[in-house]
Amino acid sequence: MSEYEPVIGLEIHAELLTQSKMFCGCSVVDPTTSEPNTAVCEICTGMPGTLPAINQRAVEFAVRVGLALHCEINETSVFARKNYFYPDLPKGYQISMYELPLACNGWLDIRTEKGEKRIRIRRVHLEEDTGKLTHCDGYSLVDYNRSGVPLLEIVSEPDMRSMQEVKSFSHAIRSFLRYLEVNSGDMEKGVMRFEANVSVRPVGSDRLGTRTEIKNLNSFRAMVHAIDFEVDRQSKILSTDGEVVQETLGWDKANGVTVSQRGKEEAHDYRYFPEPDLPPLHVDPAWTQQIRSQLPELPDAKAARFVEKYGLTPYASDVLVVERAVADFFEEAVSAAADVPADKIANWVTSDLFGLLNEAGIEITESKVSPRALSEVVAMVEAGDINATSAKAVLADTFDSGKTPADIVAAKGLAQLNDTEAIGTLVQQVLQENPEQVDLYLGGKVNLSQWFFGQVMQATRGRANPAVVRSCLEVALQQLQKTHHADS
Predict the structure, then answer these.
(1) b/e sequence 174-199, b meaning 16+ C-beta within 10 Å
(2) Domain 420-487 adopts which CATH fold?
């Protein structure tokens, strides 16, 4: 066991799914497909004499997130200028929030190996995104399409003590934002990014160590590797009586190390002051209540309901509710197959259907397998109309062709063979055609019974009911043993 424990807090930056930017009327465009610098105007490129105006839809989305995270929504919040100079920040400052954020003092419960844990949310506030730099040999190109896009920042308290907690919290936040339909969660496009505040301290201590901040982590993988490296680096420094230096770090993916970007950074370095071109933002409590009334059922509540209503395990429920579309698919499938246990439906969704989706690289909403089609497959298995092997083939065929399971079963003759007399005849045929294996079995190689089983299943092209085959085979082999003992 390590003598040091990590103390980790996360800052999540999420672009909001508004149609226009935070302080101007420019369209929000896909940065990966749009021509550079085509969704820009005088305001989002910081031209002198221009004035910003607040995007009401962005405020609504931020309030929605704040409420979902059990935050206090401040009736009055203030935009501030955060001053720093960088090529992708055309004004030389970013409009953000500082002393009076939109929401604060919230929490999110996560599931850990030790049970539920509450991670406190310090603040949720609005700001504008920067442009995007592309570095070339000896020079850089800047695209201002992203400049001014509404950006939501969620700041946690340093409550996480393991990478398992970090992963659980970050995945839960992404799921929440997607459920609330305020962010796509598509990290490959840069619409959601993490910054990690990391320190370590002796196990059992309640004092916070010197922290470092790792900037711009644009994937879960990068976040995990960067934090792991930084925890190990700081632990080694302290174990040799060294001193951790407070600094801002970047993640060098190619070399797998954190690298220093700048030294100690405090709020006063940004020279925050209230944005003179924007009045204080007042949020009507009645509007807040209206937004609250429109919140969807969120992942944690949905998971708890799945456990109580459908008798699922907490693990299965957590898997199903990560994506809202998957949870909806599951419930529709359960409704379509009233006589099939819900846990059977859940197992087919999270195993076989997920496997097909992953292999094809598509979302469940793009699948040709409808909830009713999946429930039909599971119902046929439960009724003994087809066996599990045939069911997997039917599901795969439906996934590829979109045909109904019933049509596929009929066309391919996959209906399960349950006739005891017919299966018994096949068992006798297999035994008669393999006298050498029968002699070995009677001589003590009892594991050949599995080989006989396989031969019968092969003879029926997998259509025979396995339970009936085993029963008939067991009776036939016992009879052979009795005859063999009587003859000897």
Answers:
(1) bbbbbbbebbbbebeebbbbbbbbbb
(2) Arc Repressor Mutant, subunit A (1.10.10)
